[in-house]
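ok posting inputs for the fe (ii) ion job
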Amino acid sequence: MEAHDLDLVPVRRREPGSARPQAWPFMDGRRTVAELAAILAETGAGDFHDLAHILVRQVADLAESGHIELVRGTPGSLWRPPPSTTLVVAATRQGPDAHEPDDDYRSGFAGWYERASVRGKPRRILEPGAPVYFSPELVPIAAHPVLLGKGESAVRQILVHRLFGYLHFTTELEQIAVIPVASAIARGRSGIHLPEQMRGDAYKIVTDEAWHAQFSYDLIRQVETETGTAVPELPVPAFVDRLEKIDSSFPESMRGLTALLFSIVSETLISATLSELPRDSRLPAAVREVVKDHAIDEGRHHSYFKEFLTRLWPELSVADRRTVGPALPGIIDAFLRPDPAALLPGLRAVGLTAEECRQVFAEAMPEELIRRDVAAGARPAVKYFTEVGVLEDPRTRDAFEAHELL
Ligand SMILES: [Fe+2]
Ligand SMILES: [Fe+2]
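and the output
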């Protein structure tokens, strides 16, 4: 018996009445031709446009050399292998470039050259004399009696530190998490087939995010100079470790998926900071404008990553979905859960002891409040995950319920 390994690209089929092609079930694992024929018979394989990936790139070669015989136009008996041939079809997520001219991607980046902040907005310059540098209502620790007991100037300073923390988190999030993922998408290395225009838009996201990191860093330095408050050594954000733990629990073949899903989560959330700081007139104009510039760009990214999710999820095999589904609440939590280590340098700088810091964290940010805030922040991402069918797996649904995300 002759055997051939085929490197099968992700193939899609279009359900009648459905706008978007769905992944073929035979992406899931290795199939012999006999099994493939059975699947084709089951699902109705009349769509030659979608099957072109196999026929043109791989199977046709074998047909030409007489290894297999193609029977066109007969759903269910597309390939009739000669009795001496056994074909083993191996599915991979990394296929050669394939384009779908009729793809329904609607780009939100049409006006990018005029509207993106990196293209049209000036460097924001800090003016002196603002009463506060961060909205106190968004900083629960700033209202804790231990801190209030240290005096008004300590509270003001904590708000400056909170701004440092927020801007530092932004630079790290962009550089460590979002830029690598957007770059992979731009380079056609996301593991899924995307229309050419989505790749082009990913280049614009990389540029946007680099600018967000740059202007956030720039503002940290301006605030340091203006307020005389030294920027303490700020740790790598907790999400990095949290994600590494999740990723290392996945099989080798799925490494990298955590990063993609984390970007979907972080890019589809609209944080209270992004939406509320620009409206707080107590803050310096430069702070409000930087956050507003960022929020406007993120509106475009939000739609993009929502779209990316609707394309990624159906491309995953059933086994992959069952593995990552129950881990999604952890990925959401990794992004949204507060990071005490990031707040610690500020609290220490205004004179709190280690014991007082622990007390402030425990009392100002109880677990119940954290869970409620995480659930509120995660709402858009949870909605999109639900829409693409993530919760259809019972173990995944249980995990979302256990994290109080539903
Ligand atoms: Fe950004
Ligand atoms: Fe973004």
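notes: Residues 254 and 320 are 7 Å apart (CA to CA). Confidence is low (pLDDT under 50) at residues 1-33, 40-61, 68-102.
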